[in-house]
Amino acid sequence: MTPLISCQSVGYHQQGLDILADVDWQIEPGQHWAVLGPNGAGKTTLLRIACGYVWPTSGRVLRLGQELVDLIELRRSIGWISSEMVARIPARDTGLETVVSGRFAQSGLKRLAVGGPTERDFADAADELARLDCQSLTDKPFGVLSQGERQQVLIARARMAAPLLLVLDEPCAGMDPGVRERFLRWLNERVTGDCGLNESIRNPQSKIRNSSSPTVVLVTHHVEEIVPGIQNTLVLRGGRFHCAGPTHEVVTRETIEHVYRTRLARIEQSGGRLWPIWDDGA
Length: 282
What we know:
It is a single chain. The protein is of the alpha/beta class and 282 residues long. It has 9 helices and 11 strands. Strands 5-6-7-3-8-9 form a 6-stranded mixed beta sheet, sandwiched between helices. A 3-stranded antiparallel beta sheet has the order 2-1-4, covered by helices on one side. A two-stranded antiparallel ribbon has the order 10-11. A hairpin with a 2-residue loop joins strand 1 and strand 2. Helix 4 packs across helix 5 (119-131). The longest helix is centred in the middle third of the chain and has 16 residues, at 177-192. Mean pLDDT is 87; it is low at 199-211.
């Protein structure tokens, strides 16, 4: 099948600096990826280029085999979730209202007399929450939800636009360990379970949008946040491609020591996840 996204020798030069240089990366339909690297590695910049929010200064990006696409349509097909979005959601809006707002690309649901949300929109939003096993968040104000619950609602919100690609940009930033582990457990169940996030995209058409379940890309600088359901990892260092492939093949002791410029005692596997054990003398 045609790759969803193909980055070919992508570079991004700004203010005399190479933020990215010669990055090659390809996302196939149905694959879930982690993009791993330390702060400043170029992870978010690469995704913004891949998703059409920033134009590369060198190389090219193909989306469903096309270099020139309708960027407005492309962006509608991408659900981008980051901790920055949380501040834009009104605290008083319920979980259901927040999910409905995703259909209209609103930050806060606006109930207009004409062109506003319909009963069908609310029913579809309830279905998305149920599909992600988040029914308990339906009537709770967004402002009282935990950080993990807010991310769950934002994922349901993004799915209201039937995205082709779902980007989770450091979704665990600021979470305490307990909230983080509960959220990652939930995310892995959603990716590997029967809720639809793991369905392959079949027969993509010439249009960017597709009603199938989205491919998931997790951006992180923490190895242990890569849940088992995200089986592929791209590793960046200093804006350059380091390695990519099956997570358990590319996330090795040698890779982590080189990319993070530190020393490891070992990498342990527990619960299908990789956990770096840092050398006390690093």
